[in-house]
Amino acid sequence: MLRAAAYHAKQALTVPQYYGRGLLKVFTTDPVFLWAQAIAFKTLVTLLPLILLAVGIFGRVLRQEDAFTTVAQFLRGFLPPTQSDGLVELVLQLQEASGAITTFGAIFFIATVITMFATLRYVVGAAMGESRHQMRSILGGYAFDLRMVAQVGSLFLLSFGITTAARFLSARSGDLAARAGLDPGFVGTATGGLLQAVTFLVPYVLTVGMLAQLYYFVPRPKPPKRSALAGAAVAAILFELAKNGFAYYATYVADFDRYAQSGEGLGGLGGAFGLILAFVFWVYLSGLILVAGAVVAALHERRVRPRKSRLRKMWSRKPGEFRKHRERVEAEAAEAVHESVHESVGNVARAEPSAAAEVSGAAPGGDALPEGAVRDGGPVPASS
């Protein structure tokens, strides 16, 4: 019985050891931290046009108190308090110019967000192994990035609509309960609990949805859906843990707010510099979590469906990049063999004249062959 318990304990530890070793190998051999830096830079560049576009489109809505509270709560659900409060304040400051910068923000945002998704595509494809991100042409890659912008944007709009509907029901629960003849207190408590559940679950579900799309659609060939969901679920859990941990770190350890004090050398920038530092550090940490989720998805794929068999099936079944690559390699190999054979034939042809001279009628120096020697198939006549 003890042997069976030890066996089951060993089997239970096999799975975490498998994923732990895989993550350790990727983080120690691949430029993961450089990938996270690239994501942080592209996200920082995309942040301003994103805010400009959001303020321009929802400028009229943001001037209404209830809607603005919903948007502020939406931002606070995805970022630590140190950053979300600063972003909400920045949105308030940009409201006055919302009508004039809509077009500029839209154009600049589309251009920058496509480049950001190109970076995400490269990082996710590289983290999931080999060259799974290089199977698209340049134009095909940009078209794919635009498609991912639309898909991820639709998730944001859906979550925004769900949050808005939950806040509307919570605010009007008393009137609706009175019209329906129900207890307003009970209905208000129920809708308040529903609002808290939505506020807690929507960011997690949205994070899983966005990451699962990246892990499933970016690599070619596509991994199993359950592998993409497994990586996205792990990354979303790490994201929530990191958000709470970073909030504590930014408040009590790093103290980014000290840059807003007048005694500091950068105090003239107000809280903007501290906000930028905190935001870049948070996005850098999020980039590491993104890579970790991609690695988990790839490890899960290799565990449930070996990648070699998948590539072999696509190689023989679907013409395209794989078959073109195989034909190109075969052509280069055939050309190399042909050149080698041609060079060998040339060497043999150059060696034949010297061999013929050695078996000719005269020895080197012009001396006659000895009597009885064979020349051109007949004996050499004896001299008189």
TrEMBL record:
The keyword Cell membrane applies. Keywords: Cell membrane, Membrane, Transmembrane, Transmembrane helix. It comes from the Bacteria. The chain crosses the membrane at residues 32-58, 100-124, 144-166, 194-217, 229-252, 272-299. GO terms for cellular component: plasma membrane. It is a multi-pass membrane protein. The keyword Transmembrane helix applies. Signal peptide: none annotated. Residues 335-384 are annotated as: Disordered. It is found in: Cell membrane. This is Uncharacterized protein.
